[in-house]
Design a protein that fits this description.
single chain; mainly beta; Thrombin, subunit H; 2 domains; four-stranded antiparallel sheet; 11 strands; WD repeat; WD40_repeat_dom_sf
Amino acid sequence: METDEEAEILITGDSRGYLKMWDISSYCNGDDVKERRESFVRRTLSKDNQDNVGCFTDGRFTIPTFEPLGQPPPLIWSLRGHTKAVTSIVYIEDKGLIGSGSTDCSVRLWSMNGRYLGTFGQKQPWKIQFPIKEKEIPVLC
């Protein structure tokens, strides 16, 4: 998972090889968060819930609970970038590039709009250090 500096976009990868870019510029940062905080409920620990994690408030042990958000943020694009799980994502903001690594033993480069730019791969897994440094990015013609 990776975001831009302003936390307006979120780039994710999943276990099926998909990369997704989400618009989070107005997600979980305004009235929706305030409403969720106001509706936050605490329930008291009962004998059948002894394994739950909670906290002490007013001398009583309570377990915080909440309802998950109903809608994900708006999806900008989604693509199957790898044949196996995505394990690493890096966003090079000033170049408008996205790098992704996978258990399919490949590292791929993408444009900001999801266009495939190239694959760096071999049969043996690489030991790649993220984030990728600018000087390590190949020059694209």
